[in-house]
Design brief:
about 290 residues; alpha/beta; five-stranded parallel β-sheet; four-stranded parallel β-sheet; 10 helices; globular
């Protein structure tokens, strides 16, 4: 089946990692494609018999980036399965990555020519967010702040195989001490639940380990919050689906993102196991199958 993945987002958010992952999955990858050539690329790929195409388009690409949302809509209206993944990260993470790479922001030169003075990195990032806001608001977002490359690769691999004909329901655990992930559509705070961290035997484990799951399941408050979240999603998920969205990310947060939020996210995924497609992912721990 012909499938096109468009990777876009904020510079420094991990687009090169995403493109390399798709290349490993057999996609023909084109980086830094001008917007005006996207239609031609897709048509040419079909003629050549290619089935999987991945393209990166962002502020590095010449041309009218503002036209990209309309171009995407037109391509989809023609029946082409086009999946857009928008990567972003918070300012602290982006500045750290630029410091480590010692590279200039791709907008720095253009803004200097326009304004006559060299812009700061913060000004470049802020301007880029404004340019890409129309795309971010309507597509699947992954917040890569504090996310190891190996975990981003796993999430990209997971995303590109889902059924685009239904809402992808994602349950995501996170640590409040690292901030609320910006890719969350719904956020639930479970920091009030009993904390396995204070049991020395449970501390090194995670919410996916049986001893932690058994310990948490004995508390009424744990089952009650899972029941309440389940009821909320069951009630409102049909309305999200009517909104013609393709993704719904439910984020569950505790202090460290290791025990309570992980357990609750896993239990919610079980409650909604009949929904397809569904994913569960954890921001503060590397998936077991990758260790």
């Amino acid at each position: 089946m012909f499938h096109v993945v468009l990777i876009t987002g904020i510079s420094g958010s991990g687009k090169s990692v995403a493109i390399r992952q798709l290349e490993d999955q057999g996609y023909t990858c084109i980086d830094n494609l001008p917007v005006k050539f996207l239609h031609e690329l897709i048509a040419s790929a079909r003629e050549d018999g290619l089935e999987k195409i991945a393209v990166a388009i962002d502020v590095r690409s010449p041309g009218e980036l503002a036209n990209l949302p309309d171009v995407i809509s037109a391509i989809r209206a023609m029946g082409t399965p086009l999946q857009v993944i928008f990567l972003e990260a918070d300012d602290r993470t982006l500045k750290q990555r630029y410091s480590e790479s010692r590279r200039r922001h791709p907008l720095a030169y253009r803004l200097q020519l326009k304004n006559g003075i060299a812009p700061s990195l913060g000004e470049c990032i802020s301007h880029e967010r404004e340019l890409l806001a129309p795309l971010r608001d309507h597509e699947q977002v992954i917040d890569t702040s504090d996310l190891p490359p190996i975990q981003l690769r796993a999430w990209i691999k997971d995303l590109v195989v889902h059924d685009n004909n239904n809402v992808l329901l994602t349950f995501e655990s996170f640590a409040f001490k690292k901030g609320v992930p910006s890719d969350a559509d719904l956020v639930f705070d479970v920091r009030f639940l009993p904390n396995p961290h204070y049991d020395k035997d449970l501390r090194p484990l995670t919410g996916r380990d049986e001893p932690v799951a058994t310990w948490l399941s004995q508390f009424d408050s744990v089952s009650e919050i899972i029941n309440d979240i389940t009821a909320y999603i069951q009630k409102w998920l049909p309305y999200y689906m009517q909104d013609t969205r393709s993704y719904l990310t439910v984020a569950i947060g505790c202090t460290g993102g290791q025990h309570r939020s992980v357990y609750v996210a896993e239990e919610l995924a079980k409650r909604f196991s009949s929904h397809r497609p569904i994913r569960v992912r954890h921001r503060s721990q590397v998936p077991k199958n990758l260790t």
